[in-house]
Amino acid sequence: MYAVIKTGGKQYRVEVGDKLKVEKLKANVGETIELKALMVRDDEGNVHVDKGTVIAEVKGHGLGKKLIVFKYRPKKNYRRWKGHRQPFTEIEIKEIQL
To answer: Tell me, what does this protein do in biology (predicted)?
Structure first.
């Protein structure tokens, strides 16, 4: 059984036991959150659209790897460095309900 969920503007295909990093959620570590399933495929192969929920547990928060943004104009003595680390929330899928 697997489901497709949407969070943070992205869609993820998840199964029970999966751990994934999603855009930062407003939830504390150890909390369980409920995500709406866009699609669920059960063990018999039946597909259910816009039905079901996914129960996940928040495992932690963190920052992704550093990305460098560098602007440069040749022959103009213009250089700008900027770094960015995207915040994320790590979740573990506990249950998929129909």
So the answer is: This protein binds to 23S rRNA in the presence of protein L20.
